[in-house]
């Protein structure tokens, strides 16, 4: 299947026929981003999924994102073009492991990053995404213990910004972001001293970025820790000629569209998420033709998870 004009016409026709809204995460292949009704970060897409009038949501992203849409809209049909599109970060904690962790910290508030399974969300008090994690944790009374999961790098970022000592962090990671490391970033920053650095907080190098700024190796105003959606916002206002981007490489497409005059370069051009890339033009076409793969969440699990997800979409920008 080639993503040509005939493919685009057929995808749009089938989407109309099915009363479907097409949502694409910023890490999707460029042709999938371009055909979607909305492209964005996890938080923006969750909000759109919750508000949409369409009877079918086609989620071009990974499984937990489609599950989140289903939790928010149990009466809608939610499709993911390939249900095998998982997430190594979401797989880094199970509901049983979370229950055991909660038992060690009775009374703690559980904050789960949206990259978790529906079963883990059902054991959670508030979900967050990278764009509102700090606001979510700041909304919790200072004397309450917090269990933050599953991402250790995002957790370390939130702990640093909020200065909160009673925040416990699960040791999970995303294999793509953990692989974007500090030495690589330092080398690229040294070779491009005028470049801005856009760093996703899931990256292994997020700490190094702040180190570079703290030591005055890179001016602090050039170092920006951002969610994928906030990167697009920054790009639109960018005065830098070059921006080094530390996140999954699919992000470069939206950034280049948002600011065509800026030279965006990946810090690590091998940082590609194989799960995100399972949503191919062929998979999207098949999904629309066959009404597949449908995402189901057990109604009781969805009911328990819904409050935590709703609190997430209400808090922060
Ligand atoms: P955001 O879109 O929330 O920044 O998340 C990044 C991510 O890794 C999702 O898989
Ligand atoms: Fe999960 Fe990482 Fe892929 Fe995002 S980039 S979907 S966190 S494995």
From TrEMBL:
User: Gene name on record?
Assistant: nadA
Keyword 4Fe-4S annotated: yes
InterPro entries per UniProt:
NadA (IPR003473), NadA_sf (IPR036094), Quinolinate_synth_type2 (IPR023066)
Q: Which reaction does it catalyse?
A: iminosuccinate + dihydroxyacetone phosphate = quinolinate + phosphate + 2 H2O + H(+)
Family under the similarity heading: Belongs to the quinolinate synthase family. Type 2 subfamily.
Name any cofactors this protein relies on: [4Fe-4S] cluster
Q: One Pfam annotation, family name?
A: NadA
Q: Which domain of life is it from?
A: Bacteria
Q: What name is this protein filed under?
A: Quinolinate synthase
**Which NCBIfam families does the protein's record reference?**
nadA, PRK09375.1-2, PRK09375.1-4
Species name: Actinokineospora soli
The residues listed in the UniProt record as binding [4Fe-4S] cluster, with positions renumbered to this chain, are 87, 174, 273
Which Enzyme Commission number(s) are listed? 2.5.1.72
């Amino acid at each position: 299947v080639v993503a040509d004009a005939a493919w685009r016409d057929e995808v749009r026709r089938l989407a109309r026929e099915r009363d479907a809204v097409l949502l694409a995460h910023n890490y999707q292949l460029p042709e999938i981003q371009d055909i979607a009704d909305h492209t964005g970060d996890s938080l923006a897409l969750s909000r759109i999924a919750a508000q949409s009038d369409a009877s079918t949501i086609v989620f071009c992203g990974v499984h937990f994102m489609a599950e989140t849409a289903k939790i928010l809209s149990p009466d809608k049909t939610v499709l993911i073009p390939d249900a095998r599109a998982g997430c190594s970060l979401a797989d880094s904690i199970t509901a049983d492991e979370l229950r055991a962790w909660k038992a060690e910290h009775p009374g703690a508030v559980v904050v789960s990053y949206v990259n978790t399974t529906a079963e883990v969300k059902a054991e959670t008090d508030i979900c967050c995404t990278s764009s509102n994690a700090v606001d979510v944790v700041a909304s919790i009374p200072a004397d309450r213990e917090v269990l933050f999961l599953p991402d250790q790098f995002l957790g370390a970022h939130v702990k640093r910004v909020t200065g909160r000592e009673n925040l416990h962090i699960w040791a999970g990671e995303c294999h793509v972001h953990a692989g974007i490391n500090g030495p690589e970033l330092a080398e690229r920053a040294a070779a491009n001293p005028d470049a801005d650095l856009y760093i996703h907080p899931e990256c292994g190098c997020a700490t190094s970025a702040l180190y570079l700024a703290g030591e005055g190796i890179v001016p602090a105003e050039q170092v920006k820790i951002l969610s994928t959606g906030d990167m697009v916002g920054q790009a639109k206002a960018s005065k830098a000629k070059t921006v080094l981007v530390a996140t999954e490489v699919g992000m470069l497409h939206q950034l280049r569209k948002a600011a065509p005059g800026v030279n965006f370069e990946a810090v690590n051009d091998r940082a590609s998420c194989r799960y995100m890339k399972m949503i191919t033009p062929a998979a999207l076409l098949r999904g629309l033709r066959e009404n597949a793969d449908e995402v189901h969440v057990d109604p009781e699990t969805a009911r328990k998870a819904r409050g935590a997800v709703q609190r997430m979409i209400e808090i922060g920008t």
